[in-house]
């Protein structure tokens, strides 16, 4: 058996392209320092598009590669495209912002590309050790990016906190992998499934391993009680990084979570479901309630991001139910997509208002936006409504689909908690809208083309894609996981 | 009690004491040294478990490279001692309590609910030779291996980004 | 193109054209006003065209637009619009009140006129959609969507407490609707469709489940109506909203709640409806009395009218849960009546507010002397609101009471005539608060200097209010055309309803 | 001919619309002419109906079109022409027209005294509206249509009582008139509540609201249902016809201009209740208990109101209470089944009570004109405020000796008073006598009540005439009073003639009116009451006695200015009670109005606002949210507790940290939370599975 | 003849001690070291299980983990150095400006 087949190449090609491109970008940056503020983002865009091209080429493929360590299936393709979309939007957000904030260094984009490659690997990984490595690959650049606004102490602090807690959490993940390995003798999904099918000597170790893996991934997606880093890091990190992190880390984390739980842990769903359930409920409640108390928009969005993790987790809770299994994936993916647009859009607005020294981020700084910058305010309002789940926005469709899988799984109580959570969330999202439209003020706003474009594009997409959500959801529904 | 067991308990005692000592040391340098001791002990365990290659890697990479880096930074920053105001905070007692609970849980797991039947015998000679490891590494585990290389590259870039003097100041 | 030109699509989405125009037009106040007025008038015209296409002998849904929308992954969501006797009047009411309200803002709204009109037209889309949607998913979209523009209308152009009121309005309504969303999902999953006629035809929901589903839907609708004791958002919203907002809020938005009961709760969960009818009627009756009593003690005219809505909608609810022809037809007509009368009352309050910038009853008195035309019109509207025979309010109230009385007879849904007796007592209390208001505003000598030089109604204001007066008299004297529109659908509805409750144990 | 009947409504409506549109432009004369023409037109149509009925006494139902049609509920706009309705039409339109004419003169002055000449046209708009509504009431073919008129006249009553809405009854600025109007409307609404209930019961018992479908079936429905219907209807009657306990609005209604008092609050509207009972005769007859109740209510009202009338000093108040009392007679009559007698009294009462009111109006006008003369242009010589002493032109204590100054008014007033007192051969004698005769046969208790009331009636009318027209003038204006113009006196004369000869329509023996109504009521219900000489003699003697008594008190030694009523000395506390209307208004205020206001204020301010609005929403929901949010953010604030433990120096920093939240910013805390989660989860997994 | 359970127990104790270090020490460097201890505990477990399965893959994982640990440490120490430059401290409790 050859160790590296064309099939393997085909499966890994997007990541290879991406990593190679990142390396090239590094070289370009090193030797072409002065042009990097413009050149690097341009090259990054190209690289992402090239990667997207190779991902698109994979559509329809459903293969295992590298002896089962890697799987390309509809699910991974969906997530990868979503991640690339996130990358593209991040570039749109970063271009002006980095220059404005004196952060325009080429390494930024390279690190971002590396991180995306880690995320994509995470979506395709089909072996726990690869998951672990992918997690580190996506995290380490993020740690650095969070601290990118050095020597701003807030940024450094964000990086430090993220790093410390991230390392702490990945310790748990690794230990969980070890336990799973101990229980089954392997870390490859296909072999784990096979040995579970044969019967385990000590299934409890598998359960505990799964629990610890949940800790590690829960940290990445910011699930309570592993969420504590989120607000501080979101607030301290450069906003473009925050935006990137908010979607990328979450999407990758959920990709791994979904794949791991749906592929290898269905048999122990009975034990895991209560854990997931309580984590979800805690996430929903804490995320939303804490968001109410915020006066800083970045922090508010951080908590909102926690709450959205809770919503997606709602779908995951039902993973053990046969009836709901397919909808779990589809609705979680769709929700991520809906979240992506609203999230990037809202960060774009935040960045348009952000001033140096972390000013311009309080709620009060948004007063009067509806009068002075109508388009921006309307866009922000649309994102807030999408977050709340009010039609006609993508966020509503996301919630609607999501709640079906919850109900199909039979979790009526959870559904009600989720509904209440979205009700609470309306309170703080609306607060921002109130401030923007109903209070008077003279907000300081940067008029930057790419930011405006990202914001308005996301806003239009949030509404229009809702109307035409059938193909999108259909696509998400076809993004099935390859099972063993 | 067999020799194996005596050896195990002896080494385990060393490892645990080293870890505890690391925790309790005032001076970061001492902590680092205790950690090295701990790592070395674990390396011995690796040997016992028939993993000579890993044991060597442990000693060279961990105890050697990584810990030296630690010590270097400690010295560089002059950060041997952080003034740990010993105050009756909640953090510490709760942490210790939780740690105890975790250990009890694990104990209950291991000795109460799910003892593993496997017993470790002295290793066969050809098990896990560096040669075998190398071969596996570059065939079956090609992908993670490559990923690791990227990871190290990224870490390198990250370190440069983080420690490079700001251009602005240089200008 | 054919699809777009479907009458119901046109009537629903035509205001969007106005929205688009407003989005790209320059910020010029008059232009924005005319564009909005034009759009709403054309929409009204289209709705009249729809009316002309509407066959009042046909009890079924008509002019149905039904096409697949989201048909993947087990979803069976349709884009379905349809009109029948239950909704035709409410659609007309909406399209009629919209231009009226827009006219009423001509001088009242000077700030961000373009945005105001934009939100207003969006609101109109939502409201019409609510009354036409025949797919639960689509319905929910319109239903929730109406919150957004209304929220802005209150929050930006409202009174001093507008933000509080806006958020409260939004949260209260949303609190109810999320429960309904769950119920909708349940239906979609278990019945395999969201299409309302199919759901009604399918039936077969077990009794206890029906009970919960009914309550979940009712949560949304009861808050919207609002039924006592869920009304706490209403005075805030009304008092703070700009005049046009109040008119639409009282005129149409509240009807969405009662309409929801009629369109969804009763036919889809007939058993539960019968079971819960006494409970709902009790709340309705409490609302009637409570609203009337509380109105009496208000010092703010707008608040008084707001509380009176609680009382009036109590009548509508009572009529619906009488579950007989008189009750339901009366309730539908009363929805329209309340829209007209209370809408007119809010306009009237708006007129005086524009002149005096206060709504405190103690600031008025003796206005009849100063503004006789205004007084006369107010008198007529007030009388309509308190149900004077010959005016519209009476026809609705009387038929409702009659229906409720019938439901109190043996075999009826309520089982006791006491509901009706108490509700009829509300008629007395209505006279008490309306006359109290009328006296405080118009009778007695002119005591405040500021009132001495007030101008009587302008031609524009007359143009706003007179169409409403015409309707007040028309419905009061000759409601037959209106009943004719309603009647066949209600008859058929009742037949189906009786079959489905009789078939089940 | 019958097809013309809708015009009895249309003509006044046209009149009112015309006046509403152009009334102010065509001047007083024009406005009055339009209104009078409309009213006369209605009268002519009524006469035509009368003639047509003579040819076809079975009458006809003229339908205009559908009104409310829902399932079995089919109510058309239909007019009923039969002898009963045409009787009412004739009374309403004839008296109405006369009063229109009268008002044309009266209001000319009144609007000037109230300084609001623009209201002249408005008055006639209301008056025509009233005629229209009253016509709907009497001609409607169904209970529902009757109810339209019923409420419509209530509205007119409201509008006309509050006609001088910015004044008090004494002419000063204030809200008392408006309040009186409101009181009338609300009291009527209470009655309407009963009527509504009755209608609903009727509909569900008979399946229809049309008279033709209901009345003939009365026997086939369970008696308790009929009892309910009739008692509920009685509540309506007590409201509209000012019976116990709802009569309180009628005396206050005198705040309206005098023609209004004559037309609405004496002759026509208030008799609607009597008409309703007569119309529903088959229902009442079906349940004797209901009949008795109605009769007793009527009898009690008759006596009760008569006692109050004795103690009044306001010329119109006396008449008002007299009206209440006389309505009691009618209600008692129809309650006892003496429908013809009741209707008969209704007709004659309309004549002489209208006469009395208009006469009193003429007296008031005479005094007003003497009090502040008006020049040829119709303008005041002086503002009312300029007069040092306020003068109440309605207070009988300020009158006296007027028969010299205004003889014509005196003579017609005397006719009216004697008719009311029931002296033969005036109209009142026959009708009242018929009622008393029936009462004696049907219900002796009621007979006693009514006879006592009749005695008091004669007494207070004697008192009034003596106080107003005899003796010496007790005030300046009374000395200078001037006779009213012809447009005012002419209707008085006409009504006087009717009051004298009105009794002829149902003379004992001829019983022409009985036969006329028999076409509608049927033979059983329209029985002929035999003339009873004993009853007639007794009542005549009593009346004469009462008049003599009045003379002994007020005629022999006429009242002096500022002298207290001689009756007060004789009756003492009893008279104080009469004077103060037995404190019924105060009782209602204490029993109903104030508690309601307090309840409303409590519900509105405390329950709804403080509790539901502020507390439940703002405190309970919002605050607990925020509290929970803060709690979650800061459950055990490590920083604070650390700080406190370390003494004051650290406390400040600790507090600074402590003010922040559970998100303390300390990584170690964050890690601890994570660790806590891990331990809990593992514990659960280890111990549960 | 040592049962795998013993190794598991040892590794669990070391892991817990590592975690405890993170929780109770304020010196950022020592916290990092504690994290390393946690990873090392996992390594021990991997090797022990690998031995019991007579399989190689467990050892290979350790190899990767060591590499990852190296990368992490490099980045982490760089962060510490960077922060030290700004704050002149590596007391983790002083890095707490972001909160709420």
Description:
The complex is a heteropentamer of chains A (484), B (171), C (505), D (689) and E (100). Chain A is mainly alpha-helical and 484 residues long. Chain A is 77% helix and 1% strand. In chain A, strands 1-2 form a two-stranded antiparallel ribbon. In chain A, strand 1 and strand 2 (70-72) form a beta hairpin. The longest helix of chain A is centred in the middle third of the chain and has 32 residues, at 153-184. In chain A, 73% of the residues are buried. The model of chain A has no long low-confidence stretch (mean pLDDT 89). The longest helix of chain B has 26 residues, at 52-77. Chain C is built from 20 helices and two strands. The longest helix of chain C is centred in the C-terminal third of the chain and has 32 residues, at 325-356. Chain C is globular, with a radius of gyration of 22 Å. Chain C starts with 6 loop residues before the first helix and ends with a helix. Chain E is an all-alpha fold and 100 residues long. Chain E is built from three helices and one strand. Chains B and E meet through helix 1, helix 2, helix 3, helix 4 and strand 1 of B and strand 1, helix 1, helix 2 and helix 3 of E. Strand 1 (119-120) of chain B pairs antiparallel with strand 1 of chain E.
Q: Summed up, what is this model?
A:
The complex is a heteropentamer of chains A (484), B (171), C (505), D (689) and E (100). Chain A contains 19 helices and 2 strands.
Tell me the series of helices and strands of chain B, N- to C-terminal. HHHHEHHH
Question: What integer is the average pLDDT of chain B?
Answer: 83
Given as residue ranges, the uncertain stretches of chain E (5+ residues, pLDDT < 50) are none
Largest sheet of chain B: none
- By DSSP, the count of extended strands of chain B is 1
- Which structural class should the secondary elements of chain B be placed in? mainly alpha
The tally of helices of chain E reads 3
Task: Report the portion of residues of chain E in β strands.
Answer: under 5%
The largest sheet of chain E, given as strand count, sense and whether it forms a barrel, is: none
Rg of chain B computed from alpha carbons, rounded to a whole number of angstroms: 21 Å
Instruction: Please state the structural category of chain E.
Output: mainly alpha
- Helix-strand string of chain E: EHHH
- State the end-to-end CA separation of chain B: 70 Å
Task: Note the main attributes of this structure.
heteropentamer, B: 171 residues, mainly alpha, 7 helices, E: 100 residues
How would the blueprint of this fold be written?
The complex is a heteropentamer of chains A (484), B (171), C (505), D (689) and E (100).
Chain B: H1 3-24, H2 28-48, H3 52-77, H4 91-113, E1 119-120, H5 130-138, H6 142-163, H7 167-170
Chain C: H1 7-24, H2 29-53, E1 62-70, E2 77-83, H3 88-104, H4 113-132, H5 136-145, H6 147-157, H7 162-191, H8 196-202, H9 207-224, H10 233-240, H11 243-268, H12 270-296, H13 301-320, H14 325-356, H15 367-370, H16 372-385, H17 392-408, H18 418-442, H19 459-477, H20 480-503
Antiparallel strand pairs in C: 1-2
Helix pairs in contact in C: 1-2, 1-4, 2-3, 2-4, 3-4, 3-11, 3-14, 3-19, 4-5, 4-6, 4-11, 5-7, 6-7, 7-9, 7-10, 9-11, 9-12, 10-13, 11-12, 11-13, 11-14, 12-13, 12-18, 13-14, 13-17, 13-18, 14-16, 14-17, 14-19, 14-20, 16-18, 17-18, 17-19
Chain D: H1 7-22, H2 27-55, E1 60-70, E2 73-81, H3 83-113, H4 119-139, H5 143-161, H6 176-206, H7 211-214, H8 223-240, H9 249-252, H10 258-267, H11 272-279, H12 281-286, H13 288-310, H14 315-335, H15 339-371, H16 402-405, H17 407-421, H18 427-442, H19 444-469, H20 476-480, H21 486-501, H22 512-521, H23 533-555, H24 566-571, H25 573-579, H26 584-633, H27 638-645, H28 647-658, H29 667-688
Antiparallel strand pairs in D: 1-2
